[in-house]
Amino acid sequence: MFRYLIRRILWAILLFIIITFVTFVIFFMGPNDPARAQCGGDQARPACLKLVTEHYGLNKPLYVQYWRFFDRLVVHQNLGYSYANGSSVNQTIAKAAPVTASLVFGGAVIWMMIALSLGVYSALRPRSLLDRTAMVFVLIGISAHPVWIGLIFEYVFGVKLGWTPIANYANFFGAPAGSGLPGGPWQWFYHMILPWFTFALLFAALYVRMVRANVMETLNEDFVRTARAKGAPERRILVSHVLRNALLPVVTMLGMDIGVALGGAVFTETVYQLPGLGQNLVVGIQANDFATVQGVVVFATVAILLFNLIVDVLYAWIDPRIRLA
Amino acid sequence: MAQRDEKIVVSAGAGGLGAAIASESGTELGSMEEIKARGYWELVWRRFRRDKVAIGSGVFIILLIFFAFGAAPIVKDMVGHGPNDLFLYAPAVNLAGLPANPMTHVHNPNTGHSDLLVLGAANRLGQDELLRLMYGARISLEVAILSTLGVMFIGVILGSAAGYFRGWTDTIISRVTEITMAFPVLIFVISLAATVGPQLDNITLGVFPQGVITLVLIFSLFGWFYPARIMRAQVLSIREKEYVEAARMVGASDSRIIRSHVLPHLVAPMIVYSTLIVASYVLFEAGLSFLGVGIKFNASWGNLLSSAVDYYTTRPLLMLWPGLALMLTTLAFNLLGDGLRDAFDPRASHM
Amino acid sequence: MEASTTGTNNSVVDPNDLLVIDDVKKHFPITRGIIFQKQIGSVKAVDGVSFSVKKGETLGIVGESGCGKSTLARCIIKLLETTGGQINFDGRDITKLSRSTMRPIRREMTMIFQDPYASLNPRKRVGAIVGEPLEVHNLGSASEIKTRVQELLEVVGLNPEHYNRFPHEFSGGQRQRIGVARALAVNPKLIVCDEPVSALDVSVQAQILNLLKDLQDDFGLTYIFIAHDLNVVRHISDRVLVMYLGKVVEIATRDVLYKEPKHPYTGALLSAVPIANPELGRKREPIVLEGDVPSPVNPPSACNFHPRCPRFVEGHCDVEEPPLYSFGNGHVAACHYALERWPMDASEIRRASASRAPEPEPEQPLPA
Amino acid sequence: MALLEVKDLRTSFHTEDGIVGAVDGVSFSVEKGQTLGIVGESGSGKSVTCLTIMGLNAKRNTTSSGEAIWKGKNLLTTKPRELREIRGNDISMIFQDPMTSLNPVHTIGKQLIEAVQLHRDVSNRVARARSLELLKAVGIPYAERRIDDYPHQFSGGMRQRVMIAMALINDPDLLIADEPTTALDVTTQAQILTLMKRLQEEFGSAIIIITHDLGVVAETADDVLVMYGARVVEHASVEELFNRPQHPYTWGLIGSLPRLDIDVERLIQIPGQPPSLLRPPRGCRFHPRCSYVMEVCKTTVPELLPTQREPDHLQACHLDEETKDREAAKLLESMMAEAG
Fold first, then answer.
1. Domain residue spans in chain B?
2. ipTM surpassing 0.95
């Protein structure tokens, strides 16, 4: 187990270096000259360009620049300053991250709740009405575009029925004083409910399908027959023998999907105008503010790597075959 | 030791001694003799044909292709304007700046005729919703199918090379696959489309609308690992099969083994996964265009959705059309994929 | 007991020997690493095996799962590269032959596989499966190959008209006949049979065993017959080789081995086989070996059977590896304290059972 | 009174290709402390028979009829709750593959304790002590330490010992062993069979042992049931069966087996393959492969009847008894003669 963890941690560090490097190269090769962006775009004065170029070492070779970037990132934990308005990217992300975190984790809770209940029940009663309903849900979930689902939710529940707000975020700990924005836990929940469901739908559908298949497969295992031969009631068999084995691959998938999920948050945030990382990314792209974009990408990478590490530990903890290896 | 006590023994066919006995005693064993040897593809087709849903999906996809590539130019000629033509003035856009409703007649300044917007205008620019839907289908299919081809091409070659040759080839390819998988794909694709996209947008190869090649390249770059993993696993399991050993025992060369014992078994998973991947790229393209980093000027279901956002309280139909088109297309590819999977491997779980 | 030992180096090649195996080793590396794998040990699947096979005879190789018998078969037929040692086939050293120089020799040695389901490509018709060796070696035109395939199907007891059927249309026993036909196609001298009947039902197993015997008589074939079932090996073999943990434990002619085994492991194997005769079977007291076969990753020192051996002598068996002692007439056994009587009686058992059970170690999962 | 009495048991599975009659009219009984061997090839219905008695067949697409009387109750019609009380308590079962029959994510201690607590209202401490006692009884070395290990840390033979411990933990009256040694090596098989014999003396359970290996039956069983094509073809005491076999299929089985005690040049072979249960032959199911086949065999199902000489020896064959005695004697003689 110890060796396994060390291996995963070293692997994560290596991935961090590779991904930041690729990120750096992508933005380095991008069409936008950061110096020009800093000096006010097309009307930039040559003196300003020269100053900025030298200040940031933009004329140095690629690897030197990467090293400066990496050094700044790791030693000073500094993601740089926005090309658009010079504000600290660190601060932008500090503001946006809780929004995205609320969306992703709340959504994940909903998607796992739907996936587990629907997946397990339809596995226990294949071809029943519930199973068929679940199948339709799965097909719609994987075929309808999340953006479209979001718009329909907004239209039906927000505009037509008026049950929920259709946009904006409410801070869980209360809005900043004098902002006039809504805040507090209830408002937070009230504002997030539609985004959560929108975000959760696609993954819920995929996971219903997977949980169902895994549970059905595990129900056919020999050790389940052993448990029945012992005289264990079906409920106990399900809880104690089937679920843990069936959910092992789900945990692995969760680790692999978190990156995709974070990407999916971009769409949800755009539709519901939530000021999260995704919206900052999109706004940054539209404003050619590549410092912010790069910051968001690097931050998301680190978050995903950390999350993957947690999933690895979790996996090792529930599977004794890895824990004791 | 390897005695397997299968609960159901279905022995088909009767040759050799069994047949000899059967013809001697004239029993039921003999009746199995009549089962004709059928080819693999014939069996697959017979199973597929029974699946009405999959057949329906296939028909829908064929119609869609016709709709996008055959019907779109015809409709364009009939209505007298193109999908990108602007009708900036009333009644294509009303006084409140809202797009026109369906069945609106507008004056075409280029031809002087009065043109009909069947599904109304798509946006504040007054572009024709119907034509943009049709040309959007074209973009969707082009991006999705070309990306799938790209992804499968890289994935199958790398995956099967890793699986077949193992050793260093496998180590390197597998590590690169794992690294690619660790990238936050969506976020990277969005930033890539934004940074290098504008430079690539001009590549059209003379036939494709602007931006299509960009998306295909970006999708292929970040999407190949999925088929590569599947193909690697497939090839690894095939090459462990005793019949591959038997071929090597006989003295067959690598190329003969790959050609006659490995590749034929890859066709089924390749077809099934291609179909499912097409579905996901249809959604992906729409997503990027929705965010404004995919297809920018030409019609795409994604940018139709994004322009609908501005008016969905007053013109909800604008949001309905592209969304529905997207859903039906994705659904059709998904159902076709499921049907194909069942036809290829009837034991695979149903859902 | 004769003290002379047979050397591992068979410098004199007997012209009657079709196959001479000398000190063959196959070690599979165990690797571990974060990005790049480095070797941290090896599975000694086959560890210094020597024997020879005469023309026209059947050599049975018997041993429990994991003893390396199937790996050995694959080394002989060059499906696996050996780690060390030499394989001489029909007077030629084939150990270092490349794939292309090996190709002509593949006409002379073929193999029958264990699993009648996995060993036939489900996409190929029977004609293509049986005809593949002929095609690979360019032995005739398409129509000649078809005639030959039909002939072969008839020889193995299948209907020649079924050459265009698919494997799934046949039962297990019939599929194994197809496998036999494929092995026969190129008129080989040697056929290595890797557990050819262990996946079959009892009544079908007899059909295949009889078929193999008939073919040997008709075509003068030489067999290496690998199995875990001592009954089957006894039935078909002229000589029998017993393997334990990658090493040869005993070689003798069939009758000698089953009537006068010298190695305690052979004795334990023989006494563990259930006999389909209630009077006989219940009378005897089987030697029940303790514990399990150790892991080939970290085999016991010297004689690797010593932790389970009923005749273990401390300070000798675990220190000095026994050579293959000769007992005359080619009967060799790797034991310092070979059995003097068979069936064994209590006086032969030197140590009290369970006096020194080995410390249980969590088993290392073996790499596949 | 018999411990378990099975009467006219039938089980069929509904598959896409049609109905498979996996068990077709099987009757037998097991006495207290007795060992019954059920022999047959793959698909002969031997495993399904026992799974049906235990109510362990998949519920879907399966129909069963007949009776399995256990202490006055028909197990086939017992409510699931009552059946659960019997399973693992009065009747327990061990399976073919010890590698997959234990749950990989729980320690063996936890799985043994579960078996106790499902039927006894005892504390964890008591259940653990009982588990330890059983692990020692089945010969797991260092049981105190190994009780907290996971299945993957045990070898195949050791896992089968754990399975046996689990099956015996509640002192069952009947133990059903479904091919308990098929997946094991011959030396491990000897260990397990010796262990089962010893434990049967200690615990006094009756045993049904299912196997395809005549040798295993000869060494362990008191009575033997021979199954072919989902039906019983012969039922006799083990000595009777091996000394005076009365069914051509049994002759074939005995004659086709290579064995250590007898030398033969050619094995007696049964031609053809076991029948498909989707479309089984009419009449006697063995008739297409039988060298004594008569017209009546092709049309009429032979009943399972006692022989005149030995009322406990049941067989289902149309041949007259004289011929059968003669042929059986000839078979055994020829084998002995060749043995020299």
1. 52-85+128-350
2. no
